[in-house]
User: What shape does this take?
Amino acid sequence: MIRKILTGLVLFVLVLGLGLIILAQTRYDRTFEAPYPDIRASTDSALIARGKYLVYGPSHCAHCHSPMENIALVDQGEITPLSGGFNFELPIGTVYSPNITPDPETGIGNYTDGELARVLRYGVKKNGQALMDFMPFYDMSEYDITAIISFLRSQSPIKNERPNHEFNLLGKLVFALAIQPQGDGDVPPTPAAEPTVEYGKYLVNTVANCKGCHTQRNMATGAYTAPDLSGGAPFEYITDEGKIDFNQYFLTPNLTPDPETGRLEGWTEETFINRFRQGKLITGSPMPWGPFTRMSDLELSAIFKYLQSLPPIKNPVPLGVQQVNAE
Ligand code: HEC
Ligand code: HEC
Assistant: This one.
């Protein structure tokens, strides 16, 4: 009797496992339909300047899309080429951030404006596959997306072939079952650029990705698993040479106004703005401090006001560099 049950169980597990493997192999490259936004790049110099500001400033595209060995230059606020950057070592495999210069073969030269806008608005690639949720720009204003694409078009093309992402079985399963397009196309009106809670919310959630790093997420799917900005998400230690040091890591501080565990407890708006003016203070920090030093006082003031308006969440997070296998 027991033998029969055991044989049945083993068979069940085998069939289930086989089913998952087949699912992973056949469905990981599934494609999606998403509309092409009606956005057209322009050669208007004010638009291109706005795009460049977002790319090298608050939206820190340069932090992820510049070659890793340039990370120190990015941190000093230099304009580095966007020829492909970080190799993200994740539990689901290795992800290579692509070349987003206008080279037709290895970059985005053969993308139409609509295809580029669809990447940013919906998280869907040219070939219809969904992108992982690294970039939070889905609800950006039409003006800002137009500015970014106009700037991308204005760069010099750089030939730099990037490897294809390498997913393990778990990664393929995650793509087969979980990774989906993101934006619903229903873009809320963009608040005016004023030092207000509303504008701060737009910057924190949509433009500068503070939320994406300062909130705990499922490491496989990217889904949020804790209240916004309550901190505690693990991040890699990046050396000045652009190498990841796997023996050390960081946890993102809690940015909600909790009196005991909030990192900003006791900070005034002035403290906050001054902190951003100082740039990176802890070697190895993956926070894009360099690009953020470009942000204006108005933007930082809005961000501070929004953070102060959040519900306080108690979540103690150790500060500074953490050691793997610390005794
Ligand atoms: C946190 C890191 C990060 C930031 C910041 C970031 N990107 Fe990306 N980007 C990635 C990664 C990783 C991918 C590949 C994701 C995938 O293939 O699922 C990607 C993919 C892309 C693609 C798609 C290329 C393709 O294969 O279809 C474009 C276009 C792009 N990024 C543009 C931008 C722009 C423009 C910005 C700034 C407004 C930006 N990125 C900011 C990490 C980032
Ligand atoms: C790529 C991930 C990432 C992004 C994006 C990011 N942070 Fe951070 N942040 C970190 C990490 C990791 C630390 C801890 C290490 C350090 O202090 O540099 C940190 C630290 C901080 C601190 C504490 C600084 C101190 O001196 O103790 C503040 C404040 C902060 N972040 C605010 C923000 C805001 C506001 C944004 C958006 C404008 C943002 N962060 C975007 C990862 C990120």
Remarks:
- The radius of gyration is 21 Å.
- The chain is about 35% helix and 10% strand.
- The chain has a mean pLDDT of 92.
